[in-house]
Queue: 2 jobs
Job 1
Amino acid sequence: MFSLSLKAENISKAYGNGRSSKKRRYVLEDISFEVQKGETLGIMGESGTGKTTLGKIVAGIEKATRGEIFFAGNSIEELSKIDYARFRKKVQIVFQNPEGSLNPKKTVEKSFQQVLELIGIPTEKRGEVLLDMLQTVGLSEDFLCRYPHQLSGGQNQKVALGRVLLLEPDFIILDEPTSALDISVQAQILHLLKEWQAQKEIGYILISHEREIISFMADRIAVLKEGRLAFTS
Amino acid sequence: MKKPALPRQNGSAQKKSLSSLLAVVLFLVFFILALCANIIAPHDPWERFDPYLPPSVEHWLGTNDLGHDILSELIYGSRVSLLVGLGAAVLATAIGLCVGLFAGYYKGVTDEILMGITDVFLMIPRIPLIILLAAFLKPSFWIIALVIGFLWWTSTARVVRSKSLQVSEMNFVLSSKCLGFSDKHIIFTDIFPNIIQIVIPKFMLTVAAAMITEASLSFLGLGDPSMKSWGMMINFAFTKGGLINALWWWFIPPGLCIMFFVYSVVLLGYSLEEKEQAVLGIS
């Protein structure tokens, strides 16, 4: 069932000035894991342990001090331009703060349209694809003309997820996707995520500090503590 | 039953809204004067009447040494002053915006190089350089606007850079990066619309600075003699005996116009800045 994988190998991340190791503070040290398509890896950890930093590194939007990320067996540092563009589409991230995930100056429609343009959907088909996606994420057409501040946290998160899903990703890094939402919306989003995973075989790296959410979603669980990752049974 | 009292603006807020209103009215008055100078001015500014005439019904602000109607000169002068101010501010803001956006977004070496260049420009003594350039180049108000524009972008660049640094770390920008949007797309459609509110007040303040510089240069005799600007009017009043002979109607009105226009622009700039701070929740 599992074929394509996303792998982190010996990832370390240090902050601070200077080349000397004494002046640097390592927030992540020698972290390695592998996620297969269709699988959910849950990463737990207290606030400030570097979970978000790890998520950004795996998504390729932040550089690690040491270590490499492999997508489909190839280091993302060594990918050709075409392969990197493929990686960019296939590995996505959804952030914790739903309001901050969308440009406050763009309507929902504009946010979607730009992604549709990016992935090369012909203009005449964009409306149809957009309506399909709205239906998938459980939003009505009325939301299209609204700005992020006119939406609730859950609705914003659905728009953010919808934009990501348009790219048909193989892996999504979910950085506390429901922590800012109330419990009923949390359940709704988590069920949607499970449904999409079953349909599209998406691999998730779910980052959270809530044990219940991780237990509900994850096939494997790892705990991030003092910069190191330990797998639990 | 006693009606509940309506919420009232406190004194400071009322003062602020009044000064904003005054700024808008003053700005519009000068803008309309410049735009419709040929309709509003009672005479052609180059038409000759008797020289040194005091204010009268025929010439509300009298005439100068060449017999030109001062009120008409003043109205036409607003065009040059505004054009120099706006032209220089557009150029300075465009340069400052690009430098600040690229430095703030790319960070690292790009940031260091661009901010290094900004520091060099900050160290240039601007007024002496403009005087030198104006003395060597053919006096023209376009050249003055260009030179001011090329020298006045530094503070805009610094402000834009610091805001871009902040915005480029926001999740929606990171999401755009992850979705695969190009840097150009992210800079101009994600970051730029979210920093525009700090650029507008900077633009207004640059208009004011450029107008004062143009007036100073014209007063020093380095302006464009073929165009009538407020600074040039004061220069002529000074060099042709207006000041010595106390012909107040010749030099006070252009001075007041410069003062009120700059005042309105600065006030507008501050009002917009305060509005932005209120949106961000900074008191």
Note: Chain B has one domain: 69-280.
Job 2
Amino acid sequence: MIRLRQVKKMYGNFAAVHGLDLHIRRGELFGLLGPNGAGKTTTMRMIAGIVAPSGGTVEVGGIDIFREPMRAKAMLGFIPDRPFVYDKLTGAEFLRFNAGLYGQEGPKVESLIDELLDLFELSRWKDELTESYSHGMRQKLIISGAFVHRPEVIVVDEPMVGLDPKSARLLKILFRRFVERGGTVLMSTHTLEIVEGFCDRVGIIRQGELAACGTMDELRQDAASAGAGLEELFLRLTGEHVEPDLDAIIG
Amino acid sequence: MPSSVDSRREPGVFHILRPKLLSARARFRTNSDRAPRGRNVVLGLTALVALGAAFVIAFRLVSYFKNVPEIGSLLAGKLLGVAFLAFMSILLLSNLVAALSTFFLAHDLDLLVAAPLDWGRFYLAKLGETVVHSSWMVALLSVPLLAAYMIVWDGGWMFPVVAISALVPLFVIPGVIGSAVTLLLVNIFPARRARDLLGLVTILAAGGLVLLLRLVQPEQLARPEGFASLVDFISVLRTPSHPLLPSEWASSMLMNWLTRIADPLPILLLWTTAGAFVVIGAALHRRLYVAGFAKAQEGRNEGVRSGPMGWIGRHSLGWLRVTTREFVLKDIRIFFRDSTQWSQLILLAVLIAVYLFNIRALPLFTGEQVPVFLVTLIAFLNQGLAGFVIAAVAARFVFPAISLEGRQLWLLRSSPLDPRAMLRSKYWVGMVPLIILALILTVTTNSILRASGFMMAVSVGTVLAYTLAVGGLALGTGTLYPQYDTENAAQIPTSFGGLIFMLLAIALLAAVIVLEAVPVTSYLRARQSRAEWSPSVFDVAAFVAAGACCIAATWIPIRLAAARLDELET
């Protein structure tokens, strides 16, 4: 459903993403992991059609997102890591605008808006300007926005940041149901526990390249670490297994 | 738990301001490194031309006043007093708004308020930041004015020192007043409401000031024949605007220096008052800041109804495609809910009133027969003035359109919204009110001027074509030179791109006026010789060329903007 072939992204002389190949199948919940600055967000933004790759191709549903952006983007719901929304729109107006961007309106959209707001416990604030929303409420609003046009693919960057435990659990259930019904989810996260036991497959990205990719069991085999937890595995695969002298710092 | 540090030293005012200074330096370096050399040259030249023009005007005025026998120094002092009073009024307003940001809404406040900072140093640092933010442009503007005084009155090499010692307290006093008023307002209203309120107060006050200056007609001062006797005139000149105004002390201090009068009172008054104000401001800050800052964290918790506008918009825009309609509705809603945006309409209304008032005040129809030539000429040149007003309004309302999407571009870029559809929607949302404004200005002024049918047709046609072109130019340059990080829409046109837009808009206006001068001159010649006017090939060609300029100025920038949006990465 999502396919990246030899994708490169250069910022001047710096390669943020370097020859990335990735294939995420329909009905799959895929987790992308990596240390800070590994190129996760750049990759997500390229898949969402926000950042153009310097080389290679990005396909969503078999359509090149930069050759036929309208068709490819119509299938996609993107949830960024920072929840910037229009401060002077109410929650309901934001969702209506969001649906409108995908050419959708009418009673079905209105009822879906109500259902989504209700699901994320935002109904009480639906007619208030988003400038008065907390970070978590904004996050829940943009998650609702990604679902309001009934996408086939969800690309989500750091989904749990700012969410309370109840909402985080709800989101996990929502994503799982979404993939069970044939949807595809690609999520990048720092929270290893979310990936472990939740994602069908995991990709670990390091310095703009895919260091490892597979199910948890496959990754353990690759790293020759049978029984190791994801944290241990992650540190091994990203080469960050270093213990600094903490006592000297704490004093 | 071990001791966290060996010894603790209270951070000083400079330490608190250090991140701002370092950021400013980094911004300057990044701009110098990244900006093409042409940009710096254009900016530098424009600033030089503007300051040079201000200097030439000030120099001629001050020289003229100095040469007026007996009352030369009185007139020059009065002029300086009026200028300083205007500066103080502007500073009072800008400090009000700046203080809200620096003391209550800035991003660094969480860090500073959580740190064990001495309240007095915190106040001085934030006051300093507010004053610098609000005053740098006024300080820059005062350079050509004071340079003119220095040269005309032979102020000597010490004059800049004297001028700085007059200006510093003059800038600090409104800074303290602005910060204190903001502090009181934030304690009464939540900061978000206070910002709305302050924006409105500022715009109303600025509008009132412009209207007052226009109605008072200060130019009367330079026309002694308007007074009953010379004694009346001189007594008006001798009387200070108000003996307790710091602007009056500052102008007296400078004029005393220039006319070699030894009087320490003005400088003492200025500095002691500024010192006393800072102490009173600090005391108020100590008493009210913590409560005010806590209140500033509160949001606005009241429902928003879409109201009749939503219903009308939804039904009157029903013919549009859903994507375009939702985009237009979103832009209209945001505009009318953001007081920093809609309140500018009040200022615009005041400026239009002043514009029409000035046209009406022209001594054209005072009973004598006015030559057709004069009326036609004024109506023709009025096109230029109206065009300039339209360009300024487009700079304020159309130019920032794409920049204002800044933080939300992730949403637009990841959706199947065609960038061209977005540009079209932004263009027409800006164009409809701009065309209405242009037509009101042109038709009303031409009616006041009793212009002929030909001139009315030429003016309406020109202003329509020019408005459409200026909209394209504003949207195009606004997309090519975006300011995605600026939250305040009013600041966006003051950027480099805003300058480029104004230069292009003025160049287009000049081209259209020069081209149309050909047929208008031939029309005037025919009218003067009482012959029937029939346009020659040149006349038609000139109209066509003017139209072609406008079409090119509409089309090319929008094409470039669409290409830029296609490549845009956020």
Note: Chain A has two domains: 26-51+68-75+152-241, 86-150.
